[in-house]
Amino acid sequence: MGRMERKLINPPELGGHSGYSNGVLAPPGARLLFVAGQVAWDREHRLVGGDNFAQQFGQALRNVAAVVSAAGGRPEHVVELTIFVTDKQRYMSDLRGVGDAYRGVFGRHYPAMALVEVKGLIEPGAQVEIRGVAAIPS
């Protein structure tokens, strides 16, 4: 697949940002892939990471990246991530572990992102679910 010439949109009116982009403009002709919410399942649908938030986060990200790869893309083709967590404080209390897990999958690629705290997820014991959108070069 060719290199994606995406444009990051970070208007100065919004001030500084860290670990995400405010917007990502996909290049003309890119194929859009919409990735369903991924939890920390392994291939047998067993929850990975137990009660460790950062491990669950990392597995859910790897699952998103696996879907993108199966469609012919790479992690840097992801233009948007929505992260659903059952406890925002768990996320905030392990930002170092979350950051390490993120960089282990996405490196220093930061798409547009949102974090949403939810009452619960469909999978018992899941603390995080991540959905995404990728713009894969034609």
- Major sheet, described briefly? 4 strands, mixed
Round the Cα radius of gyration to an integer and report it. 15 Å
SSE order, one letter for each helix or strand? EEEHEHHEE
- Tell me, what's the shape? globular
**Mean pLDDT score:** 91
CATH H-tier superfamily? RutC-like
CATH T-level topology: 60s Ribosomal Protein L30, Chain: A
Percent of sequence in beta strands: 25-35%
Topology overview:
Blueprint: E1 7-9, E2 23-25, E3 31-38, H1 53-70, E4 78-85, H2 88-93, H3 95-106, E5 112-117, E6 128-136
Q: What's the short story on this structure?
A:
This protein is an alpha+beta fold and 138 residues long. The chain has one domain (29-136): 60s Ribosomal Protein L30, Chain: A (2-Layer Sandwich). It has helices at residues 53-70, 88-93, 95-106; strands at residues 7-9, 23-25, 31-38, 78-85, 112-117, 128-136.
